Amino acid sequence: MQNEFLENIEKDLNELKDKNLTRRSAIKKMAAGTLMAATAVSAAKNPLGDNDKARVRNLELQEYIKTNYKVMTRDEKLATVKRLEELAKLKHNVDVSISSKDAIPGVLYGYAFNIGRCGGYQDCITACQKENNLSQDSNIQYIKIFESKLGESLHLTSGNAQYQHEIPVDDHFYMGTQCFHCENPPCVKVCPTQATWKEPDGIVVVDYDWCIGCRYCEAGCPYFGRRFNWSEPVIPKEDLNTTQHYLGNRPRSKGVMEKCTFCIQRSREGKNTACVEACPTGARVFGNILDPNSEIRYVLENKTVFRLKEDLNTDPKFWYFKD
Amino acid sequence: MRDTIGRIIDFNLLALRILFVGSVQYYMWMSFLTLLIMGGLLAYAQQYDTGMAVTGMNDIVSWGLYIANFTYFVGVAASALMIVMPFYIFKEQEFRSSVLVGEAVAVAAITMCILFVTVDIGGPLRVWHLMPFVGTPNFPDSILTWDILVLNGYLMLNLGIPIYLLYKKAHGRDPVKKHYYPFVITSIFWAVSIHMVTAFLFQGIQGKPFWASALMAPKFLASAFSSGLAFILILLTIVRTLTRYEISNSALHKMAQIMTVASLVNMIMFFSEYFKEFYMFAHHSESAQYLYWGLGDHMTTLNYLAWGLKILSIVATIALTVGLFKGKFKLLIPLCGAMFISAWFDKGIAFVVPGFVPSPLGEEISYVPTLIEWGVLVGVCGIGLITLTILLRLIINIELGGVKIKEAK
What we know:
The complex is a heterodimer of chains A (323) and B (409).
Chain A: H1 2-17, H2 23-45, H3 50-65, H4 74-92, E1 97-99, E2 109-114, H5 123-131, E3 144-149, E4 172-177, H6 186-190, E5 196-198, E6 204-206, H7 216-220, E7 226-228, E8 243-245, E9 257-259, H8 264-267, H9 274-278, E10 284-288, H10 295-302, E11 318-321
Parallel strand pairs in A: 1-8, 2-11
Antiparallel strand pairs in A: 2-10, 3-4, 5-6, 7-9
Helix pairs in contact in A: 1-2, 3-4
Chain B: H1 2-20, H2 24-50, H3 65-78, H4 81-88, H5 96-120, H6 143-170, H7 177-203, H8 216-242, H9 249-278, H10 286-292, H11 301-326, H12 332-347, H13 349-356, H14 371-399
Helix pairs in contact in B: 2-14, 3-5, 3-7, 3-8, 3-13, 4-5, 4-7, 5-6, 5-14, 6-7, 6-14, 7-8, 8-9, 8-12, 9-11, 10-13, 11-12, 12-13
């Protein structure tokens, strides 16, 4: 079809040369030119053929009408991750693998943070951003590191998370926060659509496709654990972590909540979270608190541990200690 | 059955005639409101396209102008109760002509509330996730699901009852008491519930000490009755000036009394709250400090606004009390305006924003609404006003009997 138009344009141009330009041929030429330009522009913007575009629309429609992941059957979960993998390929030309692995039985994840060892390096923050495909545009961070002066009683209002100097600083101590994965999570209680819930292994997760973006959970969390996508996340293709989990680090869209998921794409494969791996001083401990031989169990049983805002009865699975 | 359908069609045609035929001033007013709405749509389109980043909200202050106005206008909607209850329960006959106006205000206000929530959420096309059967509503745990139920129920009650009454009047027939009385009684209790549920949204959040106070729900009701009635009083004055619709001085007088008492109660509640926050200053008082005195070395714009409008409302309440005592009403309308504006700030921005500051981890951040937020606000107000105009026009025309459906012979 395009060749025909090109031939017509040539004919019209010749007519023009012969000064035989009629109104009809001029309109034909303009229409053809516009069509060519539009095709060129759309080809540059969206290098999909017509079949691919229809396929994308079909997949996106199926994704729109699907139900809450929390109540999906195993088959539905497999189907949705397959659709998302195909969409990633069609729309962005990336090969991703999105896991829908359920919780491992007999596992309850817990976390411990050694405030004696943290030097405030923030390697954990960077590793988390990389691992979890956090938007580079808005610089979302799940982890915050607070710097406080030794001798001051540990209280969050005296800490400073905006420090920008060489660390560690003498007579200062450092403390990190992130989602604490409460056993009695206020965010889960207030979410109107059950888009966030506690998995059997204790991880508090979000179905990014079910969240309506009301931010009630963000208002309910007493630990600043949750983040909202105020704009469309930006991750350059070369930085994309393609090993993903549906409830974890798969790319989100604007208008939905997200948070630390204890690196669900790693932890359910038996690995440590990215922050634990990245910490240069070994201040972070992660593991299965139901396993009597785990490091986290050792900390909980042998160290003096404390949690933040105990009086709120949130029962967080994130303890602080100092040895 | 066929007669009923015929009557319904006649009523709809009558309504269309009333709404689309009018004076030049009417057309100008409706055109003006349409312009406001279009401006709002333009602003919202920006927000929908780019994301909520075009607003002034952030991860710390995650609710702002939209939810503030939602909170305030639920109160305005609930205030219709203070006209409905005296008329139907206390048999206060002076309120007869004002009841329908109050219900119209309730409908317009609830419409605005639903719109404010819709423009505030990040995924408006996903609201069906809230519905039972097709979605997974978190009922009864999430107070937001309760709020959706009660708000929609209240909207239907306040739309259904006036339309039934107008429908009967337009056909020259008497309304059947046992058909609509139960709904009226329900709406009286329902009005209290919509505002308490909205207060519970905030009151239940233990992590936000500024909100987690048992006084929230009662305070909401007190300020709703004072500010909502203030608006209705202004509206009734405009209506009886511009049209032949009659509202007696006695009715306005009594409404002013109710409004003043509600405002005095609200004042007492403010003193109670202020005492609780500042007598023994603790960390959970910091949000109140942020609102009234600032967390730094000097006071902020927010503080001056908060004190200025608070003092204005106290002065207005005292002036109203004195005016009622002396029987002088010259300043009634400006004082009502003062009540409306000061409550708008006190229950809106001054309630929602300080709850978030300092953050749960002690960080301070400022929130200033952007032009887009103001634009969307203006648009939603336009929709509220157009809803109100439509309902009032129907009420006034049909009640005054000037336009009636001719019974087919």
